[in-house]
Specification:
With 124 residues, this protein is an alpha+beta fold. Helix content is 18%, strand content 35%. The chain is built from four helices and nine strands.
């Protein structure tokens, strides 16, 4: 299992990588392995501001559908369009090409409520 040090994690298995006042959000390696083969990503919230912990979309796998929860409050700026044709990128490269959304971070202090890699790994 992969736990990159340069990102923060939620207890619901999302990750966030902050770059300035924007950030990339996806699901963790653990989450994608538990879901199995991902077949569709649905993010109807592009352009909307979503609060920390609120649902911003869903991931559909062969065996289940799972909600995506926002790690920190922010506006959904972009959906990873590569996932339309290749949702399996989330399985193959969850922290790289498999990012799901890009957001503008509304309140950076909310990052303090998230886990670092060691805490996330210990929570599993």
């Amino acid at each position: 299992m992969n736990f990159p040090e340069n990102i923060k994690y939620t207890s619901e298995h999302e990750w966030i990588r902050v770059e300035g006042d924007e950030a990339y959000v996806g699901i963790t390696d653990y989450a994608q392995s538990e879901l199995g083969e991902i077949v569709f990503i649905d993010v109807p919230t592009v352009g909307e501001t979503v609060g920390q912990g609120e649902v911003f979309g869903s991931v559909e796998a062969v065996k289940t559908v799972s909600d995506l929860n926002m790690p920190v409050s922010g506006e959904v700026l972009e959906l990873n369009e590569e996932l339309d044709a290749a949702p399996e990128l989330v399985n193959n490269d969850p922290y790289g090409k498999g990012w799901i959304i890009k957001i503008s971070v509304k309140d950076a202090s909310e990052l303090d409520k998230l886990m670092d890699a060691a805490a996330y790994e210990a929570s599993l």
